[in-house]
Amino acid sequence: MPQPLAEKRTTSRSLLMEPNPLSSSAPTARRVSAASCRRWAMACSTFGAARPTAPPVCATDKAMENDRVRIKFDKAGCLRSVFDKRAGREALAAGKKGNQFLLFEDKPIFWDAWDIDIYYQDKVLETDGRLLSAKVVETGPVRSVVRFERQISKSKIIQDVILHAGSPQIDFATTVHWGDERDVMLKVAFPVSVLARTARYEVQFGNFERSTHWNMPQDWAKFEVAGQRWADLSETDYGVAILNDCKYGYDIRDNVMRLTLLKAPLWPDSAADINQTHTFTYSLLPHEGDFAAGGVVRAGCELNSPVAGMLAPPRKGSAGASASWLSVSGDNVIIETVKKAEDDDGLIVRL
Length: 351
Prior knowledge:
Layout: E1 7-9, E2 13-16, E3 36-38, E4 43-46, E5 58-59, E6 63-65, E7 69-73, E8 79-84, E9 89-90, E10 100-105, E11 124-127, E12 130-138, E13 143-152, E14 155-164, E15 170-178, E16 184-191, E17 198-203, E18 206-211, E19 225-226, E20 230-234, E21 238-244, E22 249-253, E23 256-263, E24 276-288, H1 296-304, E25 322-324, E26 337-340, E27 347-350
């Protein structure tokens, strides 16, 4: 039997997966290229058989650690430390809380559901909320998960903090039972140990910079920035990015990075989002170098287009263990779109 890397327990047996031949700790899914598929054989064994030898991703309700980062939580379930082992430095600002939820009063003058007026920052209604529980729900050599449940205002937040082996990226898989809220906005904040004059935000097929200070009159009009899958704050040799899979409003001032999560407008539909369940994932990615050297673009793509896996019975056939439909030779090029030509049987590929 091949040496296992990951184990999934059932009621009476374990499913053991093959180790990654490219890395002793990286998640197996990272071997699957885009626009491709790959097959692995799985073997069953009873409990007591050989266990994975790859180092586990350590996790308690107070801390998590892999071979790349060590993170610590405080009593409120917020991040108090994200130490980057490879860079040998702290990613969070000293003495500050990361992954801190902030509930603001949100009463724009016009267009409740669309606008955010700058004076919302003058009235923070609640910070952090009340932690209801914290527990480890998954541990192993591929990933570990710590679940936090908290009450904030009339809403409940259930959040899985996920740390994978071989990666500095911290995922926050979040479910919000958005209660009977009115005229409020929920944000999450990460004060980081990075100072830069500008921050960078992704848009379709590119990115742009915005100031992190309000020294000029025009900067005051840019307090909320529209972006897509990531926003990044980098110095020359180090940076931190926030990734997300469906939220498009950021604000980064000085060294505090914030992501807008939910609003509760009264107009044009007073019940548009309230008393509903919202699910989304955002991530914190500390990295060496700037956004390009740190792989921020790729990380944003991977978060939004995860590998889809399925169990299938063995079948006879001539197909190999892997197949690829399209590929590029360099890491600096991404296949964004593939479509059939309208005038012939050709394919149009947008890079």
